[in-house]
């Protein structure tokens, strides 16, 4: 379905519901925004919304919970003893795969 045809098929429903200024894209944007705000990974949001590329869905990344907090914590920890790796150190008896 072309964009113009999709727009025209929604006109009767939009008029009936008195949503003359709402477009399908608005609903898609709200849906994607709310998924990200609830912590759904961007890759999953991409598939739920039908975006064809990850680049297009990355515009919602700023809405992720803790987005700014994680960055600020990383910067605050930089150069201090509080910066810790989550990886286990490799010991002399550990095997590398």
Helix proportion? 40-55%
Q: Please trace the helix and strand order, writing H or E for each element.
A: HHHHHH
- What kind of oligomer do you see? single chain
Count of beta strands: 0
Kindly name the structural category. Answer: mainly alpha
Distance between the termini: 50 Å
Low-confidence region ranges: none
Largest sheet: none
Overall geometric form:
elongated
Provide the gyration radius in Å.
22 Å
DSSP helix count?
A: 6
Query: Mean pLDDT, nearest integer?
Result: 78
Strand content: under 5%
Question: Which key terms come to mind for this protein?
Answer:
elongated; mainly alpha; 6 helices; 97 residues; single chain
Short description:
The chain is mostly helical and 97 residues long. It has helices at 3-9, 11-16, 24-37, 42-49, 54-57, 67-77.
Can you tell me about this structure?
The chain is mainly α and 97 residues long. The protein contains 6 helices and no strands. Helix 3 runs antiparallel to helix 4. The longest helix is centred in the N-terminal third of the chain and has 14 residues, at 24-37. The chain is elongated, with a radius of gyration of 22 Å. The mean pLDDT is 78.
């Amino acid at each position: 379905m072309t964009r113009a045809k999709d727009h025209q098929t929604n006109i009767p429903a939009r008029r009936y519901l008195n949503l003359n200024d709402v477009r399908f894209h608005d609903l898609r944007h709200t849906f994607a925004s709310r998924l990200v705000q609830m912590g759904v990974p961007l890759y999953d949001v991409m598939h739920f919304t039908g975006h064809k590329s990850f680049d297009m869905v990355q515009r919602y990344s700023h809405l992720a919970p803790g987005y700014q907090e994680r960055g600020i914590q990383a910067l605050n920890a930089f150069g201090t003893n509080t910066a810790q790796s989550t990886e286990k150190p490799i010991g002399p008896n550990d095997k590398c795969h």
